[in-house]
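Form 7-S
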Amino acid sequence: MKPHKSLSLKTHSGYSVLLIVLFLLFFGATVALIVKIGGEHISIGEDASLPIGADYFRQAVDIRGRGAYLKVAHSQDIQPKAGKAFLIVAWFKMDSLPKEGERVFLLSKYDGSSPSKSGYALALKGKYQGVNPEVYWRDEKSLGGWYVFSEVSIVPNVWFLTAIAFYEERYLAVYISTINASGEIHLDLAGGYELSQPVYPSSSAQLKFGSVKTGHFKGNIGPVGVFYPHSLGNATKTKLESFLKDPFNIPSWIKGDEVILWVPDGSSDKGPFEFPIKIMEPKRIKNLVKG
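Output:
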């Protein structure tokens, strides 16, 4: 086999240009990253080290201490209502995945000490490989409970979108975004349940993002939203993919009167009700407990 000849940058301008391009791509150039969703390549952002990677949401809420969480003041408007579809979406990034058998809460609005234990929650339960999304969905008549969904693969330190959808008074579904081996992000339906009768969770508890009691959640919380979309049952997955394409803005298929809560930056509610938003830290929680 003949040895390869060395290349001279002075005489091979094409290779020189190639090396410069590669250098710019890998060492600090601002490029728009492309992912593939449903066969369509789309740009999801700039200045990100990876598609929705560690630094994608610059104003994300950082959850480090045990018992820290993002709190939204209680309102009857941020829970399901009879005759309306209900959608809650939220972006998360976890430092590590739950251990096998461990349940980590991502969001919750229920009081476990109440007689009916009514309310809703989304958690991830660790498996040998991957995690199972679990939804707590229970009304004041004690109908409902924990619903286990299909196993999904989530990558630590990479942002993922979650969505709980309840529509047509009986369908309960969970959607979670994942990244495949090619680095493409796509939205997965983790499964759904057809309830035998309508279940509308109702609780006076605050809406919380992050693990409140267990403290197992460590990572970041990105944009979150609650909606009453009129047309959720029609092409739900396709519609929810719009949150992947532009995580910082409410998609056009959701109308103004369907928006209940929209917190794109972790600091304030941009929705019509302007619900108070607070980041609860362990020291603050201790003070509240004392007095």
